[in-house]
Amino acid sequence: MGRDMSTGAGPGSLAVPAVQGISPYVIGKPISELTRELGVTEIIKLASNENPLGPSPLALAAAQASLADTLLYPDGNGFDLKEALARHHGVSAAQITLGNGSNDLLVLLAEAFLDGSRNAVISQYAFAIYGLVVQATGAAAKITAALPVDSAMPNGHDLQAMLAAIDAETRLVFIANPNNPTGSWVDDAALRRFLDAVPDTTLVVLDEAYFEYAQRMGCTDGSTLLSRHPNLVVLRTFSKAHALAGLRVGYALSHPEVANILNRVRAPFNVTIPALAAAAAALNDAQQAARAVALVEAGLAQFQEALPALGVRLFPSAGNFVLADVSAGGLSGQQVYEGLLRHGVIVRPVGGYGLPRCVRITIGTAGQNQRLIDALRQCLA
Ligand SMILES: *Cc1c(COP(=O)(O)O)cnc(C)c1O
Asked: Is this model's pTM higher than 0.90 or not?
């Protein structure tokens, strides 16, 4: 009774130590929160790598039509969506696991393949969720140093270092291709050599959340490598180019035995009826994703033209976002983030990733990009 909620002496202290040690994932600031804080109205959010063009009209119509069925539980096996994905990728439905976003699959992979006696290999600056899901299981995270900032792929995954870090107890190695927040990607030939060399006691989790955008940089289509590598797990999502982030649907492509294992720990109804319907329909609209890719190419050119002139260093990116070193004038990434907030522009500070000189900026519409450029000019002046 009456115990202090903040000291950690209450019921929270009953949690397993591994979970008590976790610092929560920091999400991009929601627009509604900034409105409450500043009373600013014309706010743009370039902080969570969302696609400003929105979803395919086909996906929205399918989601809307599905609402009439929502008195029922969803199809827990996701039959229709899996069939559509199987056709799309040329794999069997038995190789597919659906998730409540691909984040769900990261949790399931950690739960199923890790415990306190095992470890996972992760690159410095990799997507933060990898470390969180590993930590929650009590497994060790072996973090390998990223490629140097002055290398051909600044801050990127060092596949040789990751390979060297794998030991007999390593069950998962995470490769984000491209990685968020760095935008870096791995060379196709290097990835193939890596897969050939990884022992079959380690699953390679190849996170292709930005696959559609990454094609322009020649990034590998991991789904084509599954037949050669039974230990490969490819993650895809409808949150990014397909613009269905709010519905939460992603999937894993893997060996059927891995899918079978993931299905044992998966919540039976982890993907909702509107999400299943929208995702299947989105697959039929290749044009919507193509428009998103074109928008990103144009936006990247817009940034490359304007931002270096302000003293901002842009790192190469295969995603729909760019990591920007904004520190030349002496401000930290956090300070620039706060300055931009006052102009109603939300970007993502990445000090928590160990990149205190940088912010991550999602590429928006031409108008949104221009607002970012103008606001940044004022902040840095
Ligand atoms: C956004 C993102 C995801 C997944 O998001 P979901 O919405 O959970 O599908 C996964 N990996 C990376 C690297 C991401 O940036």
From this structure: yes
